Amino acid sequence: MSRIVFCHRLKKEAEGLDMPPFPGSVGEEIFAKTSQVAWGEWREMQTKIINEYRLDLSEAEARKTLMQQMRNFLSLDEKDGETKDVLHVGTPTHQE
User: Fold this and answer.
1) What's the confidence (pLDDT) of residue 95?
2) Where residue 94 falls among pLDDT bands split at 50, 70, 90?
3) What are the b/e assignments for 55-72, b being 16+ CB within 10 Å?
4) How far apart are CA 74 and CA 10, in angstroms?
């Protein structure tokens, strides 16, 4: 039987992860507040962020940036409907 969580990113109940994505309190928080769909979306987004911003994950500052972007993307730090910005990635499809 699948586990249902209230997904902070999707703002609805959805199927949760089977296990925390990594050890520690952050992994447990993601496990409790993130659906499988939202985690899949993050996995795609993190690849784009790493590539487009050329993050060198051997550097502590790059890992810190990626972790904060993950928290923003998954709405883990959201309070009272407040959302935080995620880095913009991808080529714009239209001119403004």
Assistant:
1) 45
2) very low
3) beeeeeeeeebbeebbbb
4) 9
Q: Are 9 and 41 in contact (CB under 8 A)?
A: yes
CATH topology of domain 4-73: YggX-like (1.10.3880)
Which residues have a Cβ under 8 Å from the Cβ of 8 and sit 6 or more positions away?
33, 34, 38, 74, 75, 76, 78
What are the domain boundaries of the chain? 4-73
Whether the per-residue pLDDT at 19 is higher than 70: the answer is yes
Cβ atoms of residues 18 and 24 within 8 Å: no
Amino acid sitting at position 12 = K
Which tokens go with 27?
Answer: 């992994």
Return the H-helix or E-strand segment holding 27.
Answer: helix 25-33
